Amino acid sequence: MGSPTTTVTEPARDVVRITAIEAAPLFGETPKGGWSAEIRPEDSIHALVAVHTDRGITGYGSAFTDGRLVAAGLRVLEPLFRGENALEPERVSEKLHQNTFWMGRGGTLTHTISGIDIALWDILGKVTGMPVGRLLGGTYRRRVLPYCSLLMEQPAEMADVVAAYRARGFRAFKIGWGPFGRAGDPKLDEAIVAAARRAAGDDAQLLVDAGASDAHWPQGLKWAMRTAEMLKDHNVGWFEEPLRPDAIDDFCILRKSSPVPIAGGEVLTRRQTFLPWLSRGAFDIVQPDVTKVGGISEQRRIAWMADDFGVRYVGHGWNTALGVAADLQLAAALPNVTLVEFIGGSPYVDGITEEPFALDAEGYLTIPDKPGLGVALDREKLARYTPDPSVLFRA
């Protein structure tokens, strides 16, 4: 005879039911991406996500996807999340992944689940009165160094931009995309990097992002190998996305030959996709994006898996203030995190919260220790970037 079926009955105090999930697209002031098909003012590539509950507690997340797609994704997912317990982010998020696999891993649904998952962790922190980082397992640090993420410009302008952010207190910089590798001029590539290094100073960290996930990236392995040698001469800390994002064999060859660390992974989603890249040794530094990859639950698993393979984790953070907040909480909870990405001059990072992020005297960001993500959205500020911010604040 089989054993009787056991029904788990949750105490009422341990259940906070999801009543609705809303998305608010951000558009109008998206910073330039350096893409071949550049972002237009009317484009939406980020959306904020609000998970509302029957206790009147709302959690917030961010998804790196056109807001119209996020709204469509929420309609597809609603039968799976409505009425679920918002205090169980990993279980609920995995339920959403497992029951939509036949629609494809990655893309709209995975990005949408990312925003939901971040918001669920925010709720769990608010209910328990603890920051997400502590809920994830501990507090390894209370502050972390942000690197100012900037688009590449022509050399003179590049120097001016880096110098301006250096004057604001940043001590680490990443320059990327723009004309680098696209103009087919190695002398220009080096002149841009040299200008950035001079403006940053020898004591600053300088990182370089080719942005080869752009449409029809024109360069290949031999270009990347030559360019890595050049970057070594300017004390560059890593070479990011130097090859097309599916060229795993070339990444493995480049990593073995390059004198500078090789970074990538921002377009990959879910932990399963990262496994071959980690096990085959394609990266020195892996860069999942918490607003794409499946949220905090998935990001944490990828980061720990990378640690098992001896691969450094630095989250990709070209998104919003809520993405930065999630990355900061992960930085608190993981042992070897030394950097977080911080877009220079993005209104979606600097202009949507009640208290904007601020550097301390040494160029670090303090990791919020308030419950949840530790940041609060500002309704009046958001009205500038989304047509109906009220959907984020309904109980």
UniProtKB/TrEMBL annotation:
InterPro entries, A to Z: DgoD-like (IPR034593), Enolase-like_C_sf (IPR036849), Enolase-like_N (IPR029017), Enolase_C-like (IPR029065), Mandel_Rmase/mucon_lact_enz_CS (IPR018110), Mandelate_racemase_C (IPR013342), Mandelate_racemase_N_dom (IPR013341)
Gene3D superfamilies (alphabetical): Enolase-like C-terminal domain, Enolase-like, N-terminal domain
Matching CDD domains: MR_like
Gene Ontology MF term list: lyase activity; magnesium ion binding
SUPFAM superfamilies reported in the protein's UniProt record: Enolase C-terminal domain-like, Enolase N-terminal domain-like
GO biological process, one term: amino acid catabolic process
Alphabetical UniProt keywords: Lyase
Residue ranges of every copy of the Mandelate racemase/muconate lactonizing enzyme C-terminal domain listed in the record: 155-261
Name used for this protein in its record: Mandelate racemase/muconate lactonizing enzyme family protein
Species of origin: Limobrevibacterium gyesilva
